[in-house]
Queue: 2 jobs
Job 1
Amino acid sequence: MQITRNTRLLVLTGAGISAESGISTFRDKGGLWENHRMEDVATPEAFARDPRMVWRFYKARYEHSLQAKPNPAHFALVDLEKQLDRNFHLITQNIDNLHTLAGNRDPIEMHGSLRRCFCTGCDAHYAMEEIDLEPEIPLCAACGAPLRPDVVWFGEMPYHLDRIDSLLKNCDVFLLVGTSGVVYPAAGFVMTAKYLGAHTLAINPDASSKTEAIDEFHLGKAGEVLPRLVREWFP
Ligand code: APR
């Protein structure tokens, strides 16, 4: 499939695009969920039950993410955005901020971000770097209630679904990069895009992630395959 400046391209990235930046994926060997039960750290019930445990988990991921650097796959998406301008849209399931760091204008962070938190009392929103992370449970400067990571937990509604729905209806090509396609609603986007007439591509080193909704499957690491594809599309 040749992509040109007039192609309306919608990209969905998952943890796999950040694997080569040293950030653990969730379901690969040694992935995040192997060392933590999701129920213990990534649900509203977990936060109500043990906010200290949840904050320990997310503080560790936040500190780790501060050391991570975008990799060639992230920069290839910035190149694509430069070529396609307003015809390029990026949805990410990742909360590591690497698309923003790489230079993408407006990544749609449907699962929130490690860089943000908000107050469980008055809903005030803060950047992580502006709050005191010393206390086991950081508190709101405005009302004193506990803060929580601005990350979408299991059982919560992802962000920006209306905007994503509109983009799925108006894309010519849908590109999946580094996602296992097991968590909905993101896992359903490729089927919706295909059903609505888009040509679908995926990049993944795991052949078993190829589903019948994917027209063009590129086996390999995002950091190697994506830059090569962008050079082919825009020599
Ligand atoms: N390049 C491309 N893909 C890769 C690479 C790589 N270098 N390394 C691993 N992958 C692929 C794996 O084969 C797998 O298909 O990335 C995918 C990672 O899958 P998951 O760990 O399930 O991550 P993701 O799909 O983003 O999970 C979706 O689940 O737990 C929730 O909120 C969490 O956003 C996350 C969501």
Job 2
Amino acid sequence: MKNVTHWIAGAPVEGTGRTSEIFNPATGEVGGRVHLASAAEVDAAVASALAAYPAWRDSSLVKRSQVLFRFRELMYANRDELARLISAEHGKVHSDALGEVARGLEVVEFACGIPHLLKGGFSEGVSTRVDSYSIRQPLGVVAGITPFNFPAMVPMWMFPIAIACGNAFVLKPSEKDPSASLLMASLWKEAGLPDGVFNVVQGDKAAVDRLLEHPDVRAVSFVGSTPIARYVYETGTSHGKRVQALGGAKNHMLVLPDADLDLVADAAVSAGFGSAGERCMAISVVLAVDPVGDELVDKIVSRVSALTVGPGDDPASEMGPLVTEVHRDKVVSYLDLGVSEGAKLVVDGRRTQVRGGTAAEETPGFWLGPTVLDHVPAGSRVHREEIFGPVLAIVRVSSYEEGLELINGGEFGNGTAVFTNDGGAARRFQNEVEVGMIGINVPIPVPMAFYSFGGWKASLFGDTHVHGTEGVHFYTRGKVVTSRWLDPSHGGVNLGFPTNR
Ligand code: NAD
């Protein structure tokens, strides 16, 4: 049985109180226990970060970037082990877990360029013999609170940039799949990061609440569901902290009649069922503009029927189980709900054959196969609510305008995609749609590390998106210096407001 500890001041630290079970979603068995931090344990992690901060802040940009380069190499060398840990606790297939490690490493690579990213501006002679320049400085101790669905990538959206900027970091990973955090912590140490600059507190609401109110935590990055994101944003900001809180999603794919339907069907199935739909950028609604609906649904169904569902460590599996029993049951409840709302269940994932098992609903573990609901009524709960599982809803619409209105009328604004061969239509869509990340013939438009990731509306609370230059801004504060070195001709006393002369 695994015993997943905290990581404080460069070493594993046993918890002293509550613990929670970690499951293997493919079997339903308990594989270990994770400690759940008390307020005192959070305080110990923050104290360790605070003690390490001054020296790290004062270490040179080149030194910091060298540590990041070494961390990048160690993470790359250990990517298989990291992916194995993720797959065992999350359930996603090994290749998908490797993919999330690769996307996280891109942020580390971006952060290796911190000497360039932190360059300020300099203006010589803003007034007579007066110069002005801008600098950005770290905040101090900052925290990251992350969801279960990307136990390596989402923390890596945050900590490489925060640490490169000179901050000390406390990570509170999801208690459902916490092991990746400890491997990453040990690799930071091996890379030469001073003890205390990166800490991990395992835990649940109690740990989150303490981080949100702790006076020495200056900023909090959060990624998770919308109700918790809203709570974290409101609580953190009311305690004077800078907060970016990314929430849930309901991503639509708008299919125009001129689109290549084979490309669309491939994209819809990949984006709908990859990682069992447990991605905030998954496509969960296809808006089929008349007359493409019937032909497109046939193409989607034939591809779904060919998918292989099985344990994440089986190389033949393309899709694994859901993360917990509770979550699986919640996702399954949407199947009957959809039918009661008037949708047609064209592929029922409860009946999907699981490799090494039988039908999903009879196989031990948290299984549900890929499910397709057609003719989902616009505005129904299946259409509007985040399901976060392998359920693809097809909504038939009569025009581009009707599709756009459905997307813009939704609660969320994380990702969306348009499929068309008409450049003018695509350009109009990117201009008119109220969503933060847009794909044009690309189903999962996750921005590269040098752009920033974030949605609109209930998908993000706060001003800045994560990683990229917005990440650098989030983890630093600006200063502008106006300097004059005296020369013999200085002008004497002047009580006027300083203006440019
Ligand atoms: P979650 O909101 O349940 O948990 C996220 C974090 O909050 C975890 O660390 C958890 O321990 C903590 N938490 C849970 N309940 C809490 C409470 N009552 N008070 C304080 N903290 C609490 O989310 P999840 O189920 O782990 O992840 C799935 C969700 O995350 C989905 O809604 C998905 O869309 C979203 N997500 C969004 C993005 C994005 O970029 N917008 C990325 C990944 C996941």
